[in-house]
Amino acid sequence: MKKIISVILTLFTLASLMLVSVSCSKDGGESTGGTTTLYVYNWGEYISDGSEGTIDSNAEFEKYCKEVLGMNVKVNYSTFSSNEDLYAKLSSGAVSYDVVIPSDYMIARLAAEGLLKEVNPNETIPNYQYISDDFKGLYHDENEIWSVPYTYGTVGIIYNTDMVSEDEETFGSWALLWDENHKGNILQFNNSRDAFGTAQYYLGYSVNSDDPAEWEEALGLLLEQKNVVQGYVMDEVFNKMKGGSAAIAPYYAGDFFTMYADNERLAFFHPEEGTNMFVDAMCIPASTQNYELALEYINFMLSEEIAIANAEYICYASPNSLVYENETYMEDMAEVHPDAISILYDFDMSKMEFYHDLSDETRMLMNSLWEDLKIESTIGVAIYVICGVIIAFGLALLVYNIAVKKRRQYYFNKYSK
Question: Is-contact 151 252, C-beta < 8 A?
Answer without folding.
Answer: no
